[in-house]
Each structure stands twice: as structure tokens, then as C-alpha cells.
Specification:
Blueprint (H helix, E strand, L loop, with lengths): L1 E7 L5 H10 L3 H4 L15 H7 L3 E5 L7 H4 L7 E3 L8 H14 L5 E5 L49 H22 L9 E4 L5 E2 L5 E3 L5 H4 E2 L1 E4 L7 E8 L3 H8 L26 E4 L5 E6 L2 E6 L3 E2 L6 E2 L4 E5 L15 H16 L15 H9 L29
Parallel strand pairs: 1-10, 2-3, 2-4
Antiparallel strand pairs: 1-8, 1-9, 5-9, 6-7, 11-12, 12-13, 13-16, 14-15
Helix pairs in contact: 5-6
Length: about 400
């Protein structure tokens, strides 16, 4: 199919990102900014559109906070399989999908398959770990790779050689590859339009974020994106910046439903007209703690509220600005706002203008219980489920210590 080398998500967190892909509406406007908030039937999802054309619609997801009673994302689906608590291995989700496809064997079908394996906490005891970890090497024995102290935190505290986590992550990715291989070999996949993407990325030590997706950093926003199927050229590549929030619009167009109202633009237009290399891509984090823009080889993050990097004493100050140079030859992890104050000011201003252009939709579900079970669930998956977010967007006249250097620029 077509590989999009530079695809970004609109956020760094699971549920808001999936809402964005399945509705075409990014988190800034949907208002879904955490893993505890769902949407109502007022939203129009991709499944709604396909079902309106008479297609069967099925979903098989691998974590509890995507199930319909929690997320609201089951609307439009004839059948949705989701685990009751925490997460399940991808191969089990594929088993359930195969059953759903059998039930829909006489109809056109829209499928949403969600795989959760390559997500912390990694379960490294899988059959693929031997590909990436030397047999007999004890990760709880002699440390062979130097790591800063904050790496050994949380569920990884007992490790002595944290390189084991890198091997575990690769093992989980291989499990995902294997599961996708089963799906792609299914007879229904031979003539199907297929989109493969992710809700967010993962840092493996970049920006001092270890085996997690905290913060709006490029590794946490950069996602795979591949489109394939009838009429889609095989082996093509699009190198310029795109956003995976356009996946829904693209699939509807491919299926011949271009007249359907749905946000976004067709990603395949970039086969004839390359993406603008200077097009800005905006993102917003969990609980609206941060907002960011990536543009022209630079990445800027504004902290809308204070937050502490999980398991460390590192605190990101409210209204502070971070700037990173992603151009070839630069160190993309070095913060350079002090070296490029004019650029930092310009990109910070663009982020604040983008936030001010919010087009809020009234989709948020009322009365979803924020109980201990839900909070403990997201904590078990590495999220601080009860942390507070920003009080509001940054007012233009804010004169705090972090905003003052940018006033008048």
C-alpha cells in the first residue's frame, strides 16, 4: 500500500486519540482529554456512516477503557467485543474478530480492530522475547547498560539491567505484527481497504521519558500509517507531514461514500500533491496539561498546567515553553528555546491562537462514574487517572514568570 512516513496523532493518550480517528474531530474540539471520559450518541462515528449504507459493522478491542459503556465508541457497531477489565492479548482479539467476520460473511463489513500489546506495562514473557534478549542473561543480575536513576521506577523498580525493557517492547511489537499477519491473511482482507495506524507512539528514553508516552514529544506523536486496497498503489510513499485524524475521511472516499458528511481530507491526495512541508500539526495532551505544534522541522510545547514526570522529581512548570530542532543534523532531544527565542515566541503564539480557535462539540457523556475501579484501571496501565489538568488556556495578557519573556513578541 501507501506508507506515510511522517504521520502524527493529535494526542498522546488512548481514548481521546481513538475518538479523533473514529469521528474525525480532534481532542481540542471533542473535549475528550483523558481515558475516563466518553462520548454520547450525538457524535457521528465512522461506523455510523458505514452502517447507514447497509454495511455490517464490527469491532474487537483489547482494553477496557475502549468498551462502549466506558467510551461511547460502540455506537454504530452491530457487534463490539471488549475486555471487561484491563487488557487482553492481541491474539485473543483477533480470535473474536474472526468470529465476527464469520457472522457477517454475506455482507460488506466495516471493521475496527484494536491491539494493545505494545503498550506499557509490557508483558515480556511472550514467545518472542528470545529474539531480542540473550538466553541466560539475567535482567535482575549485573547491570550492563547505564541508565539514569529515574528509569528504575514503578513496575520496573526491581530491574538491574533496564535494557530488558527495550527487548520486551520489541517482543510486544512482534506480537502485534504476528496478529496483523493473521488478519491480513483472512479471505475478507484480500479485496479490502485497510488502514493500519496507532493511537500514539512511545518514548524509549528520549526526552527522559522511559517506556511511556508522557508528554507531547515527537516519539509519542509519531505513528505508523499505511493504507492499502483496491485502487491504492502498492509500494508508494508519502514523506511529508500528515495527520491520522484524516483516516476516516479517506476510508469513506475509498468506499465510494465521498458525499457523506465527515470531517477531514483524503490522505491519498498527497500522491499527486505532496504535503506542505511547513504545514503545522497541533496536538493536545491528556487532561490538557500541554499543547504543541510541529512545523517546518521544529517542535514546540507549551505547558498549560504543571505536571510531574511519573516516578521522578522532574516538574514541568505551568506556562513554560520547550523548543526542539528536528532538522537533520540537530539533536532533536535538546531543548533550545533560549537559543532561538524568536522562533519559540512565534510557535508559542501559534499554539495559543490554535487553542483560541476551539470549535467545541457537545458530545461529552454525563454521569459516567469516576469510581475507584476506573481510576485504578488507568493507573494499572501507567496513567495517573486522577491527576488534574490545566485550569484554562493561557490568557493573552498572562504576566507570569514563564509568559513574561514572550510578551510583546
Amino acid at each position: 500500500g501507501v506508507v506515510f512516513d511522517d504521520a502524527y496523532s493529535s494526542t498522546n493518550i488512548t481514548l481521546p486519540s481513538h475518538v479523533a480517528v473514529l469521528t474525525g474531530v480532534p481532542p481540542r474540539d471533542s473535549g475528550v482529554l483523558d481515558n475516563l471520559t466518553g462520548i454520547t450518541d450525538d457524535a457521528v462515528t465512522l461506523a455510523d456512516r458505514f452502517r447507514a449504507h447497509g454495511w455490517a459493522t464490527v469491532a474487537s478491542t483489547s482494553c477496557a477503557h475502549l468498551r462502549d459503556s466506558w467510551s461511547g465508541l460502540g455506537q454504530g457497531f452491530d457487534a463490539m467485543a471488549a475486555p471487561p477489565i484491563l487488557a487482553r492479548p492481541g491474539p485473543e482479539s483477533v480470535d473474536l474478530l474472526e468470529e465476527q467476520l464469520h457472522d457477517a460473511r454475506d455482507r460488506d463489513v466495516f471493521v475496527w480492530l484494536h491491539l494493545f500489546d505494545a503498550h506499557r506495562p509490557y508483558h515480556s514473557a511472550g514467545e518472542h522475547i528470545g529474539r531480542y534478549w540473550e538466553e541466560g542473561r539475567d535482567p535482575f543480575g549485573v547491570q550492563e547498560t547505564p541508565y539514569p536513576p529515574q528509569v528504575l521506577r514503578g513496575e520496573y523498580r526491581a530491574l538491574v539491567d533496564p535494557a530488558y525493557m527495550d527487548a520486551s517492547y520489541k517482543s510486544e511489537v512482534t506480537t502485534v505484527d504476528e496478529s496483523l499477519g493473521r488478519v491480513l491473511s483472512h479471505p475478507r482482507a484480500r479485496d479490502a481497504w485497510i488502514a493500519v495506524t496507532a493511537d500514539h507512539g512511545e518514548c524509549l528514553g528520549e526526552y527522559e521519558v522511559w517506556w511511556s508516552h508522557e508528554g507531547l514529544y515527537p516519539e509519542n506523536l509519531h505513528v505508523p500509517l499505511i493504507l492499502a486496497g483496491p485502487g491504492v498503489p502498492a509500494g508508494a510513499r508519502v514523506e511529508g507531514p500528515v495527520e491520522h485524524v484524516d483516516v476516516g475521511r479517506t476510508l469513506l472516499d475509498l468506499a465510494g461514500f465521498g458525499a457523506d458528511e465527515f470531517p477531514g481530507e483524503n490522505l491519498l491526495r498527497h500522491l499527486e500533491h505532496a504535503p506542505d512541508p511547513d504545514a503545522p500539526r497541533y496536538s493536545i495532551s491528556h487532561h490538557a496539561i500541554s499543547a504543541a505544534v510541529t512545523q517546518g522541522g521544529w517542535h514546540c510545547v507549551v505547558q498549560l498546567g504543571p505536571w510531574r514526570l511519573y516516578g521522578t522529581e522532574v516538574v514541568k512548570d505551568r506556562h513554560s515553553v520547550e523548543l526542539y530542532d528536528l532538522r537533520e543534523g540537530a539533536d532533536p532531544t535538546r531543548e533550545v528555546s533560549a537559543d532561538h527565542p524568536e522562533r519559540a515566541a512565534k510557535m508559542r503564539g501559534a499554539i495559543l491562537d490554535w487553542l483560541a480557535r476551539q470549535e467545541r462539540v457537545d458530545w461529552l457523556a454525563d454521569g459516567v462514574p469516576l469510581d475507584d475501579k476506573r481510576v485504578s484501571h488507568v493507573r494499572a496501565l501507567g496513567y495517573a487517572g486522577d491527576e488534574g489538568g490545566a485550569d484554562a488556556w493561557i490568557p493573552p495578557d498572562c504576566d507570569c514568570a514563564n509568559c513574561a519573556p514572550y510578551s510583546g513578541r
